[in-house]
Amino acid sequence: MRTLFSAFVLSIATILLAPVAVAAHVLRVGGKEHRVQQWCMQTWARSVMWAANVRLEVHGAEHIDARRGTVYASNHVSWFDIFAIASLLPRYTFVAKAELRRIPIFGWGAEGAGVVFLARENRKEAFEAYHSVARQVSEGLSVIVYPESTRGTDYTLRPFKKGPFVLAIAAKAPIVPVVMYGSREIMPKGSFRVRSGTVHVHLLEPVSTAAFDYDQRHQLMNIVWRRSADLLRDVYGVGVREAVPTAPTERTA
Asked: Where along the chain do its domains lie?
């Protein structure tokens, strides 16, 4: 019953809010901060969290800075990672895989709300999109990225892709590592069943990109990966895959 109710609320919220986001985008309503689109995205996410009876426990809320653009780099094991963080952050957008754009109504509304879709098989196009987002981040918009690229089947952190870190360096924006825990129990990859529960969102200390350039993107990527992996290990006992490279010693900015 909870699964059906959550699906119903998700469908209704998408049908009602997607046209509002598109209209606000076309008519340039809500000012430079896109307040209408932001309200639509948060309302959409909070509606689904309510319908699923999912509670949010936020750790490190002091690392949310609404005054400047920030890159939030999160692990990803469930669709509820998206709903959880979208219900929490101020003035943000997502970088998402291009396949989601083809979902009826949702893709149309998400694009109107400012979500940036990446064609992952086209490396040149993907990096151009990242640089486009970097300009918006430098102007104060925050962006949520999933550097593992797709959802995992367990909480073990997988290797990161470089694109989000190129974005952060280009925008000269700090990166906040984000660790989600509990969302897999609510709706794991490959399942459509929704269970109630609690999602823990850990916002870690921001990593400054001021001392990094494009050639140092790997070092930056490994620092963020290591901080997230350490929290998963220390707090939840999640192991580390040996195939993932060890980060170099962290630099001070």
From this structure: 54-236
